[in-house]
Amino acid sequence: MQYSDGLEVVSIQDGLVIITSTVETQAKQPQLKSPEREREREREREMEGIEHRMVRVNGINMHIAEIGEGPVVLFLHGFPELWYSWRHQMLYLSANGYRAVAPDLRGFGDTDAPASLSSYTYFQIIGDLIALIDSLGQDQVFVVGHDWGAMIAWYICLFRPDRVKALVNISVEFKPRHPSGKPVEKLRAFYGDEYYMCRFQEPGEAEDVCAHDGTATVIKKFLTYRHPGPLMVPKETGFGGSPGSTITLPSWLSEEDVNYYVSKFDEKGFTGGLNYYRAVDLNWELTAPWTGAQVKVPVKFIVGDLDLTYHMPGVKEYIHDGGFKKDVPFLQEVVVMEEVGHFINQEKPAEINKHIYDFIQKF
Length: 363
What we know:
Elements: E1 7-13, E2 16-22, H1 34-47, E3 51-57, E4 60-67, E5 72-76, H2 87-94, E6 99-103, H3 122-135, E7 141-146, H4 148-159, E8 164-170, H5 183-191, H6 196-199, H7 205-213, H8 215-223, H9 255-268, H10 271-278, H11 280-286, E9 299-304, H12 315-320, H13 323-327, E10 331-338, H14 344-347, H15 349-360
Parallel strand pairs: 2-10, 5-6, 5-7, 7-8, 8-9, 9-10
Antiparallel strand pairs: 1-2, 3-4, 4-6
Helix pairs in contact: 2-15, 8-9
Keywords: Hydrolase
Region (Disordered): 27-46
Pathway: Secondary metabolite biosynthesis; terpenoid biosynthesis
């Protein structure tokens, strides 16, 4: 059964639409011809329309980027990313009647990075975002999250569903709290010590790896990772690169894009972002009262079939066999995009733009 724009409905169960989205594999970036260069210049002019300011929230200074007028769409980025990861979506939605707002989350970019690991739990981060929503003069906003931003978005909906009109979450499904044991212990038992989330636990260790490999290499390795298997960071080889090593960029990621990330991570460092991983077990302890709680806002979920998160043990079964719908009862659509990796909102911006717009315009 065809849905629209190349989307094929593979099943409809209990009102939940499961969609497989087929997209063409992008070829190597061609040399820009004159009309294409003109469109690129137009995009650069549009980017200049994005405004930047600092907002005092929850005891820290937060940098936000914003553009447009209308209902607010709050974009939450992941690691190792910044507000900039949402540049395509911000331009599209602002041109279609929405006010797009994307902060650098605490620890990232131009937002403050508290030193204490315990300052990076869901409670502090969501506290920042509720204060941001208040500062925007909004009772409710649309939320769009990816990677760590998706995890934060799930918990905004758990803690403060009254502030969220609807949620579009990308790449990371809801992960219900399991009281049987701490998450890092389980990951270590399954994948071993070289699994990236396990390697990130010891303060200073991952920072040393990043310093050795170089910021540009780390950014490129992460953003171009399209292997569905687990990301390993061996002690002997780190991220598998070295300063100045050549990494071929896909068509959707330019050297200018990489340079923007590099400039901010060179200035801020990686510790703030790594502390999100280091607070995983602490979050597990603190969220015990929410064991068994459901996410009760309207949700659309999108994932690429080459995303490493989609291939973690039990995830496909959870998403497609009823567990996801049980924990997120207002889940309305699940979209699996073919031949797409983890950084889906940057790899396939046109498709993601439309998925977001088509969903939030219903409300």
